[in-house]
Specification:
By secondary structure, the chain is mostly helical. The chain is built from 11 helices and 2 strands; from the N terminus they run αααααααααααββ.
Length: about 230
Amino acid sequence: MWRERILDVAEEHFRRIGYQKTSVADIASCLGMSSANIYRFFPSRAAINKSICGRFIAKATRLADAVARQEAPAHEKLESLFKLLHEERRKNFVEEKPVHDLIVAATAESWPVISAHSAHLVAIIGNIIEEGADAGSFSVIDAAIASRSAMNAFVPFYHPVLVEERVRNAGNAEEGLGEQISFILQALGGNDESRCSRDQQRRPTCPASHEVIRRSGDVPGGTAHLVSKA
């Protein structure tokens, strides 16, 4: 009980004035206890920071899980997922800067909560890709590698520092988002017919189907890439 109360107070302070300006003494004072009592439940100030970051990240995780449970074609679920994740990052920076700042620090220092969140997202994407492959809408050799490649391609629109730069420099964080999502879907070999219909005014022909390289050793540098079959 006390652990959660400490985190509740810490989260309120983090959201209001930021994690860097919040001291253990501030948290203890609000709870009517000494700083020493706080350390009975958390070994360090850093442990509090990481726990609060976990709360912030959990929101995006819940939203992603909800998309994965939707009854919809795989390509629509992936498109919705990527748009939702990007919007969550954009809102963090524009509307909840203290939350954004903590996530930036956690990402830069590779906190375990960030690594776990990224792994969870890759797993969700992999499950959706498998659904699409089973339905015949995606053409991939290895869904696990495809999911990692798709997430890597999406990094410019999800990494908190890169999203911040897009907002500051372009004023429109969504610029290029649709094109990047279309590229990812094309690379997975999905939704060619609907893309042709949507893009026929811009492109005379539909792009060739794509596949994901199965082994990192298949390409120079040892990294999995999205490549065309053509």
